[in-house]
Write a structure and sequence with these properties.
single chain, about 25% helix
């Protein structure tokens, strides 16, 4: 199945939410899954753009990469491109919170507890799906520590997505992933395998969804 002539937009990697000029909140995401999806989509003939948080990985050849750091930057760069894409995949591990006020100077250590006020970051894939135009496919990821399939289905409905890839935290720092694909009318559990192989399966399902809508 081919994505030839289609534009695919992917978010990938972690975000960083700074406390002061040198410290930040983040997570262990490497960006490997997002790049694996980009390579699979490119191999299927798509024109691929990845909005990517900080990563040490080299992107696949033939991929346009837009580098960002914070969740707000990722949201801005994603939303400005969403209407031009046929497929939007939210694979980034976006920080759920940011500090209410970033200190301009380094916070000095002392004997007192440090208290932070955190505020929610935007839900980027949900905001992107709210801009939906006919024919687009929106895919999200759900990293869960329990009841992954159930929670992925909840996110599918609450965010207005077409498919959610449920996985666990072990995949963050690994080249392998155990995933369950959740769509409106079906669920498909994939065996643990290399992210590249899982990415090809995800892209194949996305292509099938696009073809069904064209029909």
């Amino acid at each position: 199945m081919s994505l030839r002539g289609r534009s695919v937009l992917i978010t990938s990697g972690p975000t960083r939410e700074f406390l002061d000029p040198v410290r930040f909140l983040s997570n262990a995401s490497s960006g490997a899954m997002g790049f694996a999806l980009a390579a699979a989509a490119r191999s299927a003939g798509a024109k691929v753009t990845v909005v990517c948080g900080p990563t040490d990985l080299e992107p696949p050849p033939g991929i346009r990469v837009v580098k960002v750091v914070t969740a707000l930057e990722m949201r801005k760069e994603t939303l400005r491109r969403v209407r031009g894409a046929a497929v939007i995949i939210g694979a980034a591990a976006v920080s759920d919170w940011r500090v209410a006020s970033v200190k301009k100077q380094k916070i000095k250590r002392n004997a007192s507890p440090l208290r932070l006020t955190l505020i929610p970051n935007p839900d980027i894939i949900k905001d992107a799906a709210a801009e939906r135009r006919p024919g687009q496919v929106f895919v999200g990821f759900a990293l869960e520590t329990r009841r992954a399939t159930e929670r992925a289905r909840g996110k599918l409905e609450s965010k207005g997505l077409d498919m959610v890839v449920a996985n666990g935290p072990a995949s963050l720092a690994s080249g392998r992933i155990a995933a369950t694909l959740v769509a409106k009318d079906w669920t498909r559990r994939l065996p643990t395998g290399p992210k590249a192989r899982v990415a090809r399966t995800v892209v194949a399902e996305i292509t099938r969804l696009l073809n069904e809508r064209r029909a």
